[in-house]
Design a protein that fits this description.
- There is one protein chain.
- The protein has 139 residues and is of the alpha+beta class.
- It has 5 helices and 6 strands.
- A hairpin with a 5-residue loop joins strand 3 and strand 4.
Length: 139
């Protein structure tokens, strides 16, 4: 398994466990996460910003292990430091809201670490999920 693919699988495993220390250790110091589509309005996140963002969103909604990732396809590019992956995640929130999201990831590796992830998600699903969570919490 090429290094970029192995790093991406390690990232998904740690993210499923909500093990943010391991996730952050996989990233270069200048790591950037870009979430698409742009219409979602989510700004680019630097490594230094991610922990707070993850704790305020993912940790708020899910228990460790509640999200399961399924990798459908991984395309390795000629440069060997970039992959494209089609992934689904499924689970149930702490409030009982179902989660079924679909992604395309572009992952760029530098040396032994992940330098950049561009994540295309189903923003329509996420919007509905957030609305359901707000309703379930009484907000």
């Amino acid at each position: 398994m090429p290094a970029a693919t192995a790093l991406f699988h390690s990232y998904l495993t740690a993210a499923s466990a909500l093990d943010w220390d391991t996730v952050l250790a996989l990233f270069t110091d200048d790591f950037e996460l870009t979430i698409k589509p742009a219409s979602a309005g989510i700004p680019v996140q630097a490594k230094s910003q991610l922990l707070e963002t993850l704790e305020q969103s993912v940790n708020k909604w899910f228990a460790p292990g509640a999200l399961k990732f399924t990798v459908h396809e991984v395309y390795e590019t000629k440069s060997e430091n970039r992959i494209i992956a089609h992934v689904n995640s499924d689970g149930t929130s702490k409030l009982g809201t179902p989660w079924h999201n679909e992604y395309m990831f572009i992952v760029e590796v530098e040396g032994e670490k992940i330098r950049r992830i561009t994540e295309f998600m189903d923003s329509g699903f996420v919007k509905g999920f957030v609305e359901a969570e707000m309703k379930a919490s009484g907000a």
